[in-house]
Amino acid sequence: MTDVKPDVERIGVTRRSIGMLYRNMSGLLIAGTIGAVITVVLAIWGVQISGFDPAQQSLADRLLPPGTDGHIFGTDQLGRDVFARVAVGFRWSVPVGILSAALACSIGVVTGLLAAWNTGWIRSALTRLMDIAISFPYLVLAVAIVSVVGHGFWALVFTLGLVSWVSFARVVYAETLKLKEREYLIAARLIGNSTFRIISRYLARGLRHTIAVMYAFIFADLLVAEAGLSFLGLGAPLGEPSWGNMLATSREYLFIAPWMMYVPAAAVILVVLTANLLGDGLIERWGRGTIQN
Amino acid sequence: MGTRRRTTTWMVLLAAFAMVVAACSSSTDDTTTTTVAPTTTAAPGTPTTTAAPTTTAAPAPAEPTSLSIAMGILPPSGVPWTGAGSPGQYVWSNIFDALTYVSPDGTVTPALASSWTNVDPTTWDFTIADGREFSNGEAIDADAVVATFAVLLSEDGRATFSASVTNYAFIDSVTKVDDTTVRMVTATPQVLLPNAISLAYIVPPAYYAEVGAEGFATAPIGSGPYTSTSFSDQKVELVAWDGSWRNDPSIDTLEFLNINDPAARVQALQSGQVDVAQSISPDQLDVLAADGFTLFSGGRGSAMSLALIANDGGPLASKEVRQALNHAVDKQTIVDALLAGLATGGVWATPGVNGFSEAREPYPYDPDLAKELLATAGFADGFDMVAEITVGSFPADADIYEAMKGYLADIGVNIELKQIDFGGDWLPKFLGRDGADWDGDAFGLSWNSAPLIDAIRPFGFFSCGWLNEFFCDEAAEALIGEVNGAFDVATRNALLEDLLAVTYDNPSALWLVETVELWAHDAAVQGFSVDAFNIRFEDVTLSG
Amino acid sequence: MTASSDVEQSVPASEEAGADLPTEVSYWRYALRQIGYRLGQLIILLIGVTTLLFFLLRLTGDPALILVGDLASEEAIAQVRSFYGLDRPIIVQYFLFLGQAVQLNFGTSLQSFRPALELVLEHLPATLVLAAAAVSINISAAFTFGVWLGYRPERPERRVGLIAVLISQGIPGFVVGLILIQFFAVKWGVLPSIGIDGPKSLILPAITLASFLLPRVLRLTASNVDQAMRRDYVRTARASGARSGTVLRRHAMPNAMIGTVALIGVQFGFLLSGSLITESLFAWPGIGLLLIEAVRGLDYPVVQASVAVIAVLVFVVNMITDLLFPLIDPRLRSQRA
Predict the structure, then answer these.
(1) Which of A232, A236, A237, A249 shows the shortest CA–CA distance to B389?
(2) C335 vs A45: CA distance, rounded Å
(3) How far apart are CA C304 and CA C116, in angstroms?
(4) What angle do CA B503, B504, B505 make, to 5 degrees?
(5) What gap in Å lies between CA C75 and CA B159, rounded to an integer?
(6) pLDDT tier at B48 (50, 70, 90 boundaries)?
(7) Cβ-based interface (< 8 Å): residues of A facing B
(8) Chain A contact probe: residue of C166, C208, C268, C310 with most A CBs at under 10 A
(9) C298, B421: Cβ pair inside 8 Å?
(10) What is the mean pLDDT of residues A146-171?
């Protein structure tokens, strides 16, 4: 056991990468914190910095290149300021990512824990459920959700959450199976602790780092996945300043007004990098004690 | 751990990869070999701005010519009765003919029927042109017509081919009088019957009976100037057939490709991989024109509007408010900015449709008047409303709705645009099925005039008896009845004009723009035109 | 712990198979048993997927309305519903569907009148080829670029490479596809970008589809190689004078590759959903495009058949990756011995 790498690494939880650049953990966390601060600053003051109302259209000023008439990053196909829209998108897309990753996390952790803790038919049923989730095309799920809830913030949160919970579930399942064999957990069971207490006190402690790291990565993935849903017409509602919407719209203007793609893509990259830095930083900090064992 | 074992492992892995690679190449080969028609389309290397591929083979007449057409979507099958407009007609109209044909100016002209007469208002005799045949050699005669309508009007046909049959479902019977005469009887007088059956493509009866819809789906046979060599939802290949009664085509093979993404369609054209592309975004116009492509705004556009629910009380019950909304939106600027100036703004019937009149101008853009009208109606401070719309059906439709929203905000009307799904949401609400009803105060409604090419079609939606009624004007209702009952074209057109005037004064919708379908083609393609919903590729040539 | 527990944990589905420990002599017997066992699971999976789908689809709308269109009359809608059996109670429809589905009959496409399963299987090879090519690209890139990045990550050029990989993670796949088309097909005219027409036409779509997964695969491989090189036994090997290339090849790479293969196996379903986007950019006649059209047109039989086929595909790929683990990981073998 000690020599064999833990399963979580295999399926990509500890996808450390920036960690390789800096051996020193505080560097990662500092860089991640700087990214987070920039994100928050842009989310709060970005629109003011741009100097424009993100919803203000002007058909006469459409597709202006960056720098024209005070539009730092140009305008889009309806003459709206791209910077202002991307800035207000921090308040749209980032919450969508945070909440959908949280939804995925809740479903995944509960399913994974139950599947690993129980044996017999409950485990079988839950592992089959994971199989189903992994092979079910997300397009159909997204269409069904949109038909019931309609296009909107919550539809997007549900869709993204429901397509990614199984990643959490599989990792939590695998980790819990291993933790169950640990001496302290076996001991805790022998002493006569209730199942609830074991799960909430001991298992939760053992899993929290894995979950936190995984959360950061899934959040980053979902930010990009939102653009894919918009491409298929299943993303954020029309006119909402979501980055996915902006990126999907920009594909028709990729060679006419490329700034419509660059600017939201840069915002996505900023947040993805931040999440990765924080995730890697956390691994470096906690790594040896928990995930590696 | 032995070295030998490790080597074995790596060999197994390598073998696995080799299998994957082999699978790739062999399957690709399989797919290529099934491609029957020779493609002489430009290799991607051909510079984009130069002429079409075939032109390089200048005066050699033996060289087969071909044309590739990038479509946004292809018809689901070769069975030509599963749709009434784009995209089916663009493809089917080259393979099939109906008894009649609606020409670009909206008049009905003979096709397989050489003439027709009314025996009485509900009885029509169609004379079938003599001596023509289908590409498989079957004769086009009264039996073929009767057999086709027997399929369409059967109980199963009415269900499976509903999209087409719905337009002429009023036909009670189709019988053979003699070898070249067919009699159609309708329940009520239907002056537009010849227009309506322009969609009822006639198929060879023996072949259809043999293969059924399933066989016909991939191997359709008709009487048009092209026959199909392969028909799938991704690619349709047609080859010229010189036995057709229509003009002899100059281009030997046609290839319709399904390129779903608009940006990719433009790139396919720019890279010379296709010669014609459908549904181009108006914003690509300048780039394509600079590259030497010819742009063509063709086909009957749809009238795009925001239907206003006037039945549920609230601000929209007021005629003045509805007029105000029409005054508030600058249609011309929308057309110029978003549709490259190619469309007409604020119309009920699009140009070319019977009932369109230059004299009836769109509501002029006048925000001050709009505010006055709102004040008259008691809404000086404006109001909030919700509109349920579908997007992605027409070029720039999402942008047009958003621009509309911006203009309405200027007069204090704050409209929330709720995007809904067409099949799952919009249709049930529109048709009022299973208790579905609108959640908002208005909804997006676009209509084309196929197959009648007549302004009457959308009046059904705005009438008092509509399945999910949302607008009812008694004066208009009476006129709709009179128009439908008229059995004289001149009288009918005069009544239609009155009806349009009443509707204009008491608007049932915020009329936005005529949608455009923008085509782009290589400069070498000559004679390309779109009639209503047909492209007659037999008239297209490639210049040298 | 034995080797098999690792395999088992990496994919939860195989947990009950723990009794069949692969011993050195009986790998193939183990593999056969696994396959038999997994086939049983596949049947449960298919029933689950089709049942879930059946009821989800009913939420997306009524196909009768699409077939009739906006000129519908009450009569026409009723005719269509009764013809397709859509007027029966949903539970009756479900059991009728299930009864047919077990005979591999998913019904006839409502739009194209063809047997749904036949239509789907006709589109399957194109998707398989595309997915296989994308997986090959991912694995080849992991073997080369990924290993290179992780081998000595502190070197400046590799840092730049890693940062590029991280940045590329924020770029949506369709943007990658459009940029590839713009350069290789439009500007330089060296590669085709539409349809299937010879092996050359596979290149751009395959790269585009590969790009959906590539950043993750590279990161994981690099990270695993880096970690492996820092392990005690590797350090010992290096300290005892083994050439670092040999150490990399013998110890670090197999170790890293097992993670890569597992990631690709687990993410194969995700890769297939990337094919929805790729196929619509490249007019690639695969299942993705078929599924998009069928979902839009509420063509229930085709959606049912496509989803069932996709589920089988994902399942089979996961099974194959499971069976590959004991073959790849040298430590698994050494422990067995």
Answers:
(1) A237
(2) 58
(3) 8
(4) 90
(5) 10
(6) very low
(7) 56-57, 59-60, 62-63, 77-78, 143, 146-147, 150-151, 233, 237-239, 251-256
(8) C166
(9) no
(10) 88
C-alpha neighbours within 13 Å on the C-beta side of residue B381 = 0
Chains in contact with C, where contact requires at least 3 CB pairs less than 8 Å apart: A, B
Q: Which long-range contacts (CB under 8 A, 24 or more apart) does C105-108 make?
A: C106/C301, C106/C302, C106/C304, C106/C305, C106/C308, C107/C300, C107/C301, C107/C304, C108/B214, C108/C301
**Which of B41, B44, B61, B45 has the alpha carbon at shortest distance from B53?**
B41
The pLDDT, as a whole number, for residue C75 is 83
**Inter-chain residue contact A78 with B403, CB threshold 8 Å:** yes
d(CA C184, CA C191): 6
* Residue A5, helix vs strand vs coil: coil
Q: What is the pLDDT of residues A75-106, one digit of tens each?
A: 999 999 999 999 999 999 999 999 999 999 99
CA B166, B167, B168, B170: dihedral to nearest 10 degrees?
70
Q: For position B454, what pLDDT does the model report?
A: 81
Supply C76's token pair. 């026409």
Phi, psi of A235 (to 5 degrees): -90, -145
Q: Using the predicted structure, report yes or no on whether residue A135 has a pLDDT greater than 70.
A: yes
Per the structure block, which two tokens stand in for B399? 């942008």
Q: What single DSSP character describes residue A68?
A: B
Max avg pLDDT among A23-27, A102-106, C251-255: A102-106
State how far the alpha carbon of C61 is from the alpha carbons of C58, C151, C300, in Å. Answer: 6, 53, 10
Q: Which amino acid is at A27?
A: G
Residue of B nearest to A144 (CA): B424
List the beta strands (DSSP E) in B326-485. Answer: 383-389, 413-419, 442-447
Interface A-B, measured as beta-carbon pairs within 8 A, has a size of 63
**Among A3, A5, A17, the residue to mutate for chain C (most C Cβ within 10 A):** A17
Number of B:C CB contacts under 8 A? 229
Q: How far is A231 from chain B (nearest CA, A)?
A: 9
For B143-166, the pLDDT digits (tens) are: 999 999 999 999 889 888 988 898
The residue to which tokens 């019957």 are assigned: B193
- Inspect the interface and report whether the beta carbons of A20 and C162 lie closer than 8 Å: yes
The counts of H helices and E strands in chain C are: 18, 0
Which ipTM value was assigned to this complex? 0.83
CB distance B195 to B453 below 8 Å: yes
pTM: 0.85
Q: What is the pLDDT of residues A108-127, one digit of tens each?
A: 999 999 998 888 889 989 98
What CA–CA distance (Å, rounded) separates B351 from B343? 9
Question: Identity (one letter) of the amino acid at B484?
Answer: N
Q: Find chain A residues with C-beta within 8 A of B418's C-beta.
A: 150-151, 237
Which of B35, A252, A257, B395 is closest to C194 using CA atoms?
B35
Looking up tokens 């791209």 gives A82
Tell whether B264 lies on the interface with C, counting CB pairs under 8 A. yes
Other CB atoms within a 10 A radius of the CB of residue C321 amount to 21
Distance between CA atoms of B536 and B67, rounded to whole angstroms?
13
Kindly report, residue by residue over B294-332, the tens digit of the pLDDT: 988 876 678 899 999 998 888 999 999 999 999 999 999
Cβ contacts of residue B289 below 8 Å, gap of 6+?
Answer: B295
Measured between beta carbons, the chain B residues lying within 8 angstroms of C129 are 23-24, 27-28
Question: Which helix (H) or strand (E) covers residue B6, if one does?
Answer: helix B3-34
How distant, in Å, are the alpha carbons of A283, B230, C317 from that of C126? Answer: 41, 17, 17
